[in-house]
Amino acid sequence: MTTSQHSGGTAGSNVALGLDTFGDISQQPDGSRTHPAQVLRDVVEQARLADSLGVDAITLGEHHRDDFAISSPEIVLGAIAGATEQILLGTGVTVLSSDDPVRVYERFATLDGVSSGRAEVILGRGSFTESFPLFGYDLNDYDALFSEKLDLFAKLRSEGPVTWAGKHRTPLVNQEVHPKTEHPGGVPAWIGVGGSPQSVVRSVQVGIPMMLAIIGGDPARFLPFADLYRSAQQELERDPMPLGVHSPGHVAATDELAREELWEHFAANRNRIGRERGWPEASRAEFDAEVESGSLYVGSPETVARKIANTVRTLSADRFDLKYANGTMPHDMLMTSIELYGRDVIPRVRELLSE
What we know:
This protein is an alpha/beta fold and 355 residues long. 44% of the residues lie in helices and 15% in strands. The radius of gyration is 19 Å and the shape is globular.
């Protein structure tokens, strides 16, 4: 069991604290867009810094759009593996619905080998759907694809012979996947959950822990899902499973500076996605409300640490991942945020949780 998957419901000072990025296309000092190739190199540098500071995990989100550079997280994680020593290497998320579970498992078993057991995967359906037509999948099968492929992936974790049949891929008859991992239980995995009761229960049914994506509103709104998650474990007689939380944020020297640095990049990103989805324009008042009482962890190290600690306590979470890249934020700004998170926020969170 990795440090990210200790027994559930601790809410203590041993909580795992990680970072997450989608490889958002950043902004150059002259206002121009950074080339995606440079963004990928920057992500490796960011992960190297996080590792040096003792951050527990770095997760990379898979997207197939021009505002994010990372479409193949495992390749970038392989580069990070060679540049780091102890940080866990994961995805946030791998879009399992439009991928092949066998190939996903083999890629992460390979990453696990080359990183000496540091790989993990967060499986999801994907809030963006570009990968479905890109890889030849019908969006009408959105739910069925994930359910079926998750079932197969869960069986592959035994790393023994698997016999399986479904509707959306050819069956397996007494087949194995390679390479094998060096630890029991196969590749460590999570399921990314946006907040439907069905997804919460499914996580427990397949025995893969839940990572709650809380990107808006008071985190306490998700307490019923955390309670359902734990009650389902009891009903299904599962051993305690860890609970993770993923939310966006930014750390700077002061509360005011953090807000001012993030706002324009947050707004540009939110408004671009909003135009695609029919959302109203983001307002500064909405942004400030999310910072003060919602799910934007923005401020000085003390402010961010207190907010993380409060969420961990409220949900009895075992892990918290901060999405530190938000829109077109410059690389230097991200590096400063990572440094403050690793050097100041993480120790302070653990201090607060030990009180």
